[in-house]
Amino acid sequence: MKTISRFALLALVASLAACSALESDKIDYKSAGKAPTLEVPPDLTQLSRDNRYAVPGGAVTANSYQAGLANAPSLPTAVSSVGDVKMERAGTQRWLIVNRSADQLWEPVRDFWQESGFLLTTDQRNLGIMETDWAENRAKLPQDIIRGTIGKLMDSVYSTGELDRFRTRLERTPNGTEIFISHRGMEEVYSSSRKDQTAWQPRASDPELEAEFLRRLMVKLGVSQEQSKVIAAAGAAPQTAKVANVGGQPVVQINDNFERAWRRVGLALDRTGFTVEDRDRTAGTYFVRYVPPNPNKSEPSIFSKLFGSGKTEAPLKFRILVKGQGETSTVSVLNEAGAPDSTANAQRIVQVIADDLK
After folding, report:
1. What is the mean pLDDT of residues 10-26?
2. Of 10, 66, 208, 277, which sits most exposed with the smallest number of CB within 10 A?
3. If 0-12 CB within 10 Å is exposed, 13-18 middle and 19+ buried, where does residue 144 land?
4. Could you tell me the pLDDT band of residue 329, with boundaries at 50, 70 and 90?
5. In contact, 181 and 221? CB cutoff 8 Å
6. How many whole angstroms separate alpha carbon 163 and alpha carbon 142?
7. How far is it, in rounded angstroms, from Cα 267 to Cα 318?
8. pLDDT at 344
9. Lowest-confidence region among 85-94, 181-190, 290-299
10. Quick one: pLDDT at residue 122?
11. Three-class HEC string of 258-303
């Protein structure tokens, strides 16, 4: 069916179902595609055997436990927990801390996403990364008598005009595993003044969706529904982050110690269009590349336009360095070779990170 016909039909149905309501408090995802053969991006296939990112002094990578954290002091944080599952929160960011190994958690987390209506397009156990395909939250569709009567036929023409995908990162610690979930979204908008054509464009990440899936994952890991809701509702002190210039280099200044800053920066990178290829927590370094969050590859993302014309180009690679100084931390950008980057690109990157951390 042509796009204009679908929009016309949706408008007609909406007018006939004026009393219907959107069940925005529910989640019912339906994958946008068929189960693919899981593929590894070309530049990740050899990562586990690649030492080009080695940092002098015996760096510990994402594929092993961070031995340097073994004697790390306990941190005052806003944490709620049940059994061996904790949820920690900083501003709009949340993540889980589970006293189980990443190997024990991988299969349950994979099952969780499949049970939630998603297919996995990235499933890299050695990197601790899995990513869903683009899917539509069907709970946002009108639940009216017309749709209920016509059923599956209407499913082919109803659309929310939104797609979501989720990235899950499992990071090993000496005492267990930290689980981060980040959301990326797309929305369908009119691309012509006559409103007869549409195109997909990125929309802002949704912290509440991230929080809801973390809560549901807690239930999958053994926490009761009631306990998970209490934990997810727990508040946290406001967090601040600002861009500054130190020694001629743009940096993000965060009012958090290293441990919390490390976790928050990693989640911010996942949210804002970077792929964490590797990480060295001991050295405070994330090795990242940027991948446009585009489901059909036909439209450039906001972040792509930020760096240029939006044309398809080779991914840009950077190192994001997190340094702690007592109860504050700074985040700076290094180029692929590990040298300080003070270019306009670095300025844009620190601004994107700071905006997400606020």
Report:
1. 42
2. 208
3. middle
4. very high
5. no
6. 17
7. 16
8. 85
9. 290-299
10. 93
11. HHHHHHHHHHHHHHCCEEEEEEECCCCEEEEEECCCCCCCCCCCHH
Token duo for residue 55: 């940092």
Q: Compute CA distances 206 → 18, 48, 272, whole Å.
A: 28, 32, 11
What is the pLDDT confidence band of residue 262, given thresholds at 50, 70 and 90? very high
Q: Of the candidates 133, 161, 163, 209, which has an alpha carbon nearest to the alpha carbon of residue 14? A: 161
Nearest to 281 by CA among 72, 126, 102, 60: 60
Is 40 strand, coil or helix?
Answer: coil
**Angle CA 65–180–182, to nearest 5:** 145
pLDDT band at 155 (very low <50, low <70, confident <90, very high): low
Provide the domain limits for residue 60.
Answer: 3-357
Tokens describing residue 346:
């670095």
Per-residue tokens: 10: 């949706």
Q: What token pair was written down for 285?
A: 């370094």
